[in-house]
Amino acid sequence: MQNTFVTIARYQYSSEAQIVKGRLEADGIDVFLSDNITIDTDPLVSNAIGGVKLKVLAKDEKEARNILASIQVHSLDDNGNPIICPNCGEQHISIYSTITDFKSFIAFLAGFIFGTLPFSTRYKYKCEDCSVEFPIP
Ligand SMILES: [Zn+2]
């Protein structure tokens, strides 16, 4: 088990993966990317083959995940303070788009063009710890 690989992250493009690879290697962790060459050749296939996989040896998994968590970008308010989850009080908040399918994308586009939909309804915050979603104030 010592030398098996574990995929700890996936990235849409290899540039992101390379940045994280450099960060982990700075801490002495061996990092292996897979499908990065394929995706560099044709970025449009990234979703189809599951993105660039960032792998580490099983023995390094815990440490690598801790480093990833420490460099994860979470949402800040306009004053640079972390956004706090109203449900659990944690600060692991991501912004995400509610545009999830083609139909809502068309609705969004129509609202955007005609100015009928407020932007704020299209994006929400989501807590990564308890999965509670809440609107952007
Ligand atoms: Zn929460």
General description of the model:
- The protein is α+β, with helices and mostly antiparallel strands and 137 residues long.
- It has 2 domains: 5-71; 73-137, N-terminal domain of TfIIb.
- Helices cover 31% and strands 22% of the residues.
- The chain is built from 4 helices and 6 strands, in the order βαβαβαβαββ.
- The protein has helices at 14-26, 36-41, 61-71, 102-114, and strands spanning 5-11, 31-34, 52-57, 93-97, 123-127, 133-135.
- The strands form 2 sheets. The chain has a 3-stranded antiparallel sheet with strand order 1-3-2.
- The protein is globular and about 55 Å long.
- The chain starts with a strand and ends with a strand.
- The mean pLDDT is 82.
- Zinc ion (ZN) binds at residues 85, 87-88, 90, 127, 129-130, 132.
- Residues 85, 87-88, 90, 127, 129-130, 132 line the site of zinc ion.
